[in-house]
Amino acid sequence: MNLNDYRGVLVFVEQRSNEIQNVSLELLGKGRKIADELGVSLMAVLPGYEAKKHAKLLVEYGADKVILVDDKALEIFTTEPYTQALVKVINDEKPEVVLFGATSIGRDLAPRISARLQTGLTADCTSLEVDEDRMLLMTRPAFGGNIMATIVSPDHRPQMSTVRPGVMTKLERDATRKGEIVHVDMKFEKNSQYVEVISFEQETEEKMDIQESNVLISGGRGVGSAENFSLLYDLADELSGLVSASRAAVDSGWMDHDRQVGQTGKTVRPNLYLACGISGAIQHVAGMEEADLIIAINKDKGAPIFDVSDLGIVGDVHKVLPFVIEEIKKIND
Ligand code: FAD
Asked: Please, which domain of life does this record's source organism belong to (predicted)?
């Protein structure tokens, strides 16, 4: 393999129900920076159906070239047609770097593509940099978050990684940016892994994404029971936020895994993160430390959560929360 044959940065753009996912815009922000450092162009590949209307948006968020693969078979994600589409685009364009969101779709797709292209993949990166030899330095937590490992792919191209939603920052949208838009036609090979989507059900409102919320009221084991979470829901309602949880609360069956914050949950970056009865284990903190304002309520004044908090309240959540809700209600009324 001649590594110099590969040039450019490519971002896989994820759409669901023909809506562009935020993580893809975040990756365009990071991809733009890497492309500028390498002196190459930033490509965005968007598989979907009737998704052409989004091409301009992707340019406005940093792409130099948008590659549309528009086909009915790509309307709803299934692994095989998406893999075939991405493998074709990567083989045609030969980018040196390919980035995916570490979403359920990205986590399914990226390993399949890396295996087919016989190249490496680093999952769940928290930092991406390039060195003087054009090598992508892919950093991710290892050994339960106790060390950070920086991984390189010296002999194979493209260098591929997945990045969790909320980790990178998107650029300011710039409506004056210009870019090229190209279409790629696919002839899909029907092989044994080809599945047919029979029906598709949209998630209900209770399944709203905690990564999209500006305010998160998060509960841990200290909340005590599923019923006690009603206080957190009341406060979230008053602040137009959502309720999230630590793994201990999820493992106790008090909350859906979908709402877990942390290393094996989601990385969140809200304006306000209120941690209620959460100790602040490293695996939890890894998912919320980038919040703008962190407030913790914990009855143990030595709890590690206070080390990452801007404001700490030492007290019983069951006493503090009703008081806070009452005061906020007064302001809201
Ligand atoms: P605890 O650690 O039990 O803390 C409860 C806290 O509540 C205590 O600080 C206590 O003082 C306080 N408290 C108790 N009663 C009250 C009260 N009435 N009022 C106020 N405070 C009270 N954890 C995650 O959260 N997310 C992850 O993604 C995650 N991934 C992990 C991955 C790995 C590989 C491993 C090994 C662990 C992971 N964990 C994760 C688990 C993590 O190590 C902790 O066990 C977990 O975060 C603890 O949750 P907690 O803070 O709710 O519970």
From this structure: Bacteria
Distance CA 88, CA 225 (A): 51
Which protein residue's CA is at the shortest distance from atom 26 of ligand 1? 262
Q: Which of 284, 285, 288 to mutate to test the pocket of ligand 1 (most atoms within 8 A of CB)?
A: 284
- Both tokens of 47, joined, read 């598989």
pTM, whole model, 2 decimals? 0.68
Sheet of 293-298, strands arranged across:
242-245, 215-219, 272-276, 293-298, 311-314
Q: Using most ligand atoms within 8 A of CB, pick from 210, 244, 289, 298 the residue to mutate for ligand 1.
A: 298
**Helix runs in the chain, H state only:** 22-38, 55-60, 79-93, 104-117, 229-238, 247-251, 282-285, 317-332
Asked whether the ipTM of the predicted complex exceeds the cut of 0.90, the reply is yes
**CA distance linking residue 261 with residue 284, whole number of Å:** 6
pLDDT tens digits along 233-280: 999 999 989 999 999 999 999 999 999 999 999 999 999 999 999 999
- What is the CA(261)–ligand 1 centre distance, in A? 11
